[in-house]
Design goal:
- With 342 residues, the chain is α+β, with helices and mostly antiparallel strands.
- It contains eight helices and 15 strands.
- It has helices spanning 2-33, 59-73, 81-86, 95-110, 120-132, 138-145, 175-189, 287-311; strands at residues 36-43, 46-53, 90-92, 153-156, 159-162, 195-199, 202-206, 216-220, 233-238, 243-248, 253-256, 259-262, 277-284, 316-322, 328-332.
- A hairpin with a 2-residue loop joins strand 1 and strand 2.
- Helix 2 packs antiparallel against helix 7.
- The model is unreliable at 23-28 (pLDDT under 50).
Length: 342
C-alpha cells in the first residue's frame, strides 16, 4: 500500500520535474544568447566604460547615478556638496557624501593618516611649485599643514564641521572607486549578474565576461611614458567578483636639482614621498576601499603596505617597486597568486 502511494506521488511529481528541467535549460540558453552591452562616457574628468549582459540598455540610469555622485563629491562642480563644505565651516551633507566620508575616516585611522582627504592644499602647493619653478619653502609647507589633517573635520549627525575654515576636502582618491560601486549597484538592482564597471582605471567585476570566462584585467608596467602611448602590461589578473584600483607615481613626478619628486604627498611631513614604490594595485570587496588603500600604499611604501595587508587579509595587493639596483621588482599578496595568469 505504501509503495503504491509513493508511486502515485512520483507520477504526479514527474511532470513538474520535467517542467523544471526544461525551464532551467531554457533560462540558461537565453542567458547564453543574451548580448552584452557597452556604455561609455565621461565623468569626474575621466572616461568610463561599463560592459554588462542585458537585453535592455541602462545607460540613462548609469549616467543619472554618476551625476548624483558628481553632485556630492566633485570639486569642479560649484554646486556640489563638497564645494559648499569647502567654502564654509561645514554644513549638512547627503547620504552619498556621508558614505564616502565615513569610509575615508575609517581608512585614515587604519593607515595612521597616510590616507587623508584634506591633503589637497599641499598637493596643489607642490604641483604649482614644480610647474612654476618655485618650490614651496619649509615655512610655506608648515603654514599649510596648520589646516591639513583629517582630524580637523568632524561629523555630527548629517552635518560636517571644520575646525579651520581653510581646511579643504578632496575625495578624488576615493570618489572614482565609489562611483564604480554606485554603478555596480544600479546593475545589481536590475538583476544583472555579469558585468564590468570601469571609471578612470578603477574597476569592479561580477560573473563572466562576453567570452564566458573570468574577467581579465591588466596591470600596466610602470614607465616614464607620460603620454600613455605605449601601455605595456606587467601582468594579467583574473578578476571575478572583486574590485580593483591602481595608484602610481611613475607618470606623475618632477625632477629638481637632479632629484626625482613624486606627485604623492605624505600628509605627515607635507613633502613628496621618497620611497621606491612605483605602482600599487589593490583588490577588495568594493572599489572605494580598493581606491583608498591603493593611494595609502603609495604614501606608506612597501613595508608599510605589507603591514596593513597582514592586518587585513580581505585585501590583496600587487606592488611594483625599484630594488637596490634600481631595477623593477614585484611583490604581491600570497592570496593573489592564483589570480595571476602564467
Amino acid at each position: 500500500m505504501m509503495d503504491a502511494t509513493r508511486k502515485k506521488r512520483l507520477i504526479w511529481q514527474l511532470p513538474f520535474l520535467v517542467l523544471l528541467i526544461v525551464g532551467t535549460i531554457l533560462i540558461i540558453r537565453q542567458q547564453r544568447n543574451m548580448p552584452y552591452k557597452t556604455n561609455q562616457g565621461t565623468i569626474f574628468g575621466t572616461f568610463y566604460t561599463i560592459t554588462y549582459q542585458s537585453d535592455k540598455d541602462y545607460h540613462a540610469d548609469i549616467k543619472a547615478a554618476l551625476l548624483q555622485v558628481d553632485s556630492a563629491l566633485s570639486m569642479f562642480n560649484e554646486k556640489s556638496v563638497i564645494s559648499r563644505i569647502n567654502q564654509s565651516y561645514g554644513g549638512p551633507v547627503n547620504q552619498m557624501f556621508l558614505d564616502v566620508y565615513e569610509k575615508a575616516v575609517q581608512i585614515s585611522k587604519e593607515t595612521d593618516g597616510a590616507f587623508d582627504i584634506t591633503v589637497a592644499p599641499l598637493v596643489n602647493a607642490w604641483g604649482f611649485g614644480f610647474k612654476s619653478g618655485a618650490m614651496p619653502t619649509r615655512q610655506q609647507v608648515d603654514s599649510i599643514r596648520q589646516f591639513v589633517g583629517w582630524q580637523k573635520v568632524s561629523l555630527k549627525g548629517h552635518t560636517i564641521q571644520k575646525s579651520d575654515r581653510r581646511t579643504m576636502l578632496d575625495c578624488s582618491a576615493i570618489a572614482k572607486g565609489y562611483g564604480v560601486d554606485v554603478v555596480a549597484q544600479v546593475l545589481k538592482q536590475q538583476g544583472i549578474t555579469n558585468y564590468m564597471v570601469e571609471i578612470g582605471g578603477e574597476i569592479i567585476t561580477h560573473g563572466i565576461s562576453p567570452r564566458r570566462l573570468p574577467w581579465r584585467v591588466g596591470v600596466i608596467k610602470p614607465t616614464d611614458d607620460s603620454l600613455s602611448a605605449h601601455n605595456e602590461y606587467q601582468t594579467i589578473l583574473n578578476v571575478t567578483d572583486k574590485a580593483m584600483a591602481t595608484s602610481g607615481n611613475y607618470r606623475n613626478f618632477y625632477y629638481k636639482g637632479g632629484k626625482r619628486y613624486a606627485h604623492t604627498i605624505d600628509p605627515h611631513t607635507g613633502y613628496p614621498v621618497q620611497h621606491n614604490i612605483l605602482s600599487a594595485t589593490v583588490l577588495a570587496g568594493d572599489c572605494a576601499t580598493a581606491d583608498a588603500y591603493a593611494t595609502s600604499f603609495m604614501v606608506m611604501g612597501l613595508e608599510g603596505a605589507q603591514r596593513i595587508l597582514e592586518r587585513h587579509p580581505e585585501l590583496m595587493a600587487y606592488l611594483i617597486y625599484t630594488d637596490k639596483n634600481n631595477e623593477y621588482a614585484v611583490w604581491f599578496s600570497p592570496s593573489l597568486k592564483d589570480k595571476i595568469e602564467p
